[in-house]
User: Which sequence fits this backbone?
């Protein structure tokens, strides 16, 4: 990497920011006749500026520049057509890429993105189908074990996700436990790992608690008198559920979907561990572009695209649940 | 009958969640190397674990970073929460947005952006950079556990202390801090667990020479999982379980006290 030297304007910008901060601080102290309590957040503001804002600007900087530091949109073009760089090299060397059979658009990046979105959607759907009934049954008032059970649902979430995935590897491997059992029972071995289903299984396993918990929260906070009232007014069980309980749990569903979908899109490691080579997802693609291909500019462009995607889906989900009532893990 | 079916469903889901963990823990006591065959009970993987210098070093890195990062982020986050709480509406909203950004950002982007920062500023990646990264992602969680406690507090008690002649520093120590203490402790424990558990951000902000447990497990899985990893998983699971029970016990106690 040749262009890593901080440019002159960077130094000036830094000095300007520091000076501005000191002046602002001085003015604030003067106005409040002493140290106002809001100044306590200054160390944190500074920390955020250095470790959150500047790094994000760096990602944007690399995404919009080429290796020489010139402004360009080339990286996004490379995202769209992964063969672009190679084609340009061929042209520079005097070959015609179309004659060489390289004329087509390389779709690896876009395909990976679509595949990741599809997998994340599937994972969210499955988590909802499995998780909602579970949350519903746990939250029932007459079920005394409920509060204990929900803790049992949360515990695996806190276990290192690498270890959880490794655990599935030991079960699914060709010589793993399930295959050994199958063989003992006289059935042949089955290839369980190295396909999309195994990746999906690993994802659902990892993210299921993220669906159960917020839905449980929303359901157990509900005023039980409402559904009792519905029953008293003559609604049957199904009608009470579909007209009262379910609509009132929507905020929980929204935050459950958020908490499953967001990390699913960016899933990292699980596809490689359980899926073998041909199930790469977007998180792995970013990592590979940065660390293996050593192409920071395209890697940054990919990261930016992913962030945009996340912000977009966050915005969409916010619209459904503007107050964030579903609550988060905290 | 319906009640039985519901219970049965819950048991199945819980089995799905716990079976892999249980298998992992049982395997850690298996004398043989093979994962599919039981060759008798033994503690030899645990012994090997304790004698492995790489694992011990990773353990040291993980725990010291978790401790230092949780202390630093608790101080930083508590001060920030008090400051944010005292702000007027607009700067408060701005600060909360800034706090939410790292929490909504995918881990991989956080990790990569920090990696770019360290390379750009020519700080060699290793223990120190990993520590900085951990403080960065821990602090928002501390803020979010302290702020609700500040909002619950009687807003006049601080002013009353000042009216009665307390200096702002004294009032802070004697009025504000004691009433938000549960939030601070929950935040600190949360920061500690998150830091203990983190893989993605650590992976991008450290060098291959300085590994915590997660990055070590990652590089081991590439070579094939060794039985010592099972023993390690079992130990970490138990450690996390104890920590989580402590957090949970605390939060139920504080919510009962309300």
Assistant:
């Amino acid at each position: 990497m040749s262009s890593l030297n901080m440019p002159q304007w960077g130094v000036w910008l830094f000095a300007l920011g520091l000076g501005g901060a000191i002046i602002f601080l001085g003015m604030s102290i003067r106005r409040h006749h002493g140290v106002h309590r809001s100044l306590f957040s200054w160390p944190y503001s500074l920390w955020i500026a250095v470790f959150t804002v500047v790094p994000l600007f760096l990602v944007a900087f690399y995404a919009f520049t080429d290796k020489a530091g010139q402004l360009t949109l080339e990286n996004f073009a490379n995202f769209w057509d992964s063969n672009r760089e190679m084609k340009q090299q061929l042209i520079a060397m005097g070959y015609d890429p179309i004659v060489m059979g390289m004329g087509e658009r390389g779709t690896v990046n876009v395909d990976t993105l679509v595949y990741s979105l599809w997998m994340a959607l599937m994972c969210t759907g499955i988590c909802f189908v499995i998780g909602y009934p579970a949350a519903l049954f746990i939250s029932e008032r007459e079920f005394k074990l409920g509060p204990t059970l929900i803790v049992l649902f949360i515990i695996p979430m806190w276990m290192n996700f690498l270890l959880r995935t490794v655990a599935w590897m030991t079960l699914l491997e060709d010589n793993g436990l399930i295959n050994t059992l199958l063989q003992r029972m006289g059935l042949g071995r089955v290839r369980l790992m190295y396909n999309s289903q195994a990746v999906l299984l690993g994802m659902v396993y990892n993210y299921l608690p993220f669906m159960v918990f917020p839905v449980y929260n929303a359901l157990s906070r509900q005023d039980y008198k409402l559904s009792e009232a519905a029953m008293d007014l003559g609604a049957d069980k199904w009608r009470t559920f579909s007209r009262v309980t379910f609509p009132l749990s929507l905020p929980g569903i929204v935050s459950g979907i958020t908490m499953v979908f967001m990390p699913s899109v960016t899933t990292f490691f699980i596809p490689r561990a359980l899926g073998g080579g041909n199930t790469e997802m977007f998180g792995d693609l970013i990592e590979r572009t940065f660390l293996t291909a050593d192409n920071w500019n395209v890697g940054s462009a990919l990261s930016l695209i992913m962030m945009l995607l996340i912000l977009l889906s966050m915005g969409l989900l916010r619209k459904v649940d503007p107050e964030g009532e579903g609550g988060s893990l905290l | 009958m319906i009640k039985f079916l519901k219970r049965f469903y819950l048991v199945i889901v819980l089995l799905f969640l716990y079976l892999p963990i249980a298998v992992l823990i049982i395997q850690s006591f298996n004398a043989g190397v093979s994962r599919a065959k039981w060759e008798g009970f033994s503690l030899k993987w645990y012994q090997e674990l304790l004698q492995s210098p790489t694992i011990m070093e990773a353990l040291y890195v993980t725990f010291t970073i978790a401790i230092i990062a949780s202390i630093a982020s608790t101080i930083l986050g508590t001060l920030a929460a008090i400051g944010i709480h005292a702000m007027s509406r607009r700067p408060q909203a701005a600060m909360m947005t800034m706090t939410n950004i790292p929490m909504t950002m995918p881990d991989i982007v956080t990790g990569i952006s920090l990696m770019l920062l360290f390379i750009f500023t020519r700080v060699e990646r290793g223990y120190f950079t990993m520590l900085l990264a951990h403080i960065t992602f821990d602090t928002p969680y501390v803020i979010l556990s302290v702020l609700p406690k500040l909002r619950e507090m009687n807003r006049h008690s601080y002013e009353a202390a000042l009216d009665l002649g307390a200096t702002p520093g004294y009032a802070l120590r004697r009025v504000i801090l004691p009433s938000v203490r549960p939030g601070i402790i929950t935040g600190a424990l949360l920061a500690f667990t998150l830091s203990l558990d983190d893989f993605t951000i650590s992976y991008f902000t450290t060098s291959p020479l300085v590994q915590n447990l997660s990055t070590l497990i990652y590089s081991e899985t590439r070579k094939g999982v060794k039985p010592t990893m099972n023993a390690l998983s079992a130990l970490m699971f138990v450690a996390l379980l104890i920590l989580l029970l402590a957090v949970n016990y605390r939060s139920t106690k504080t919510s009962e006290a309300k």
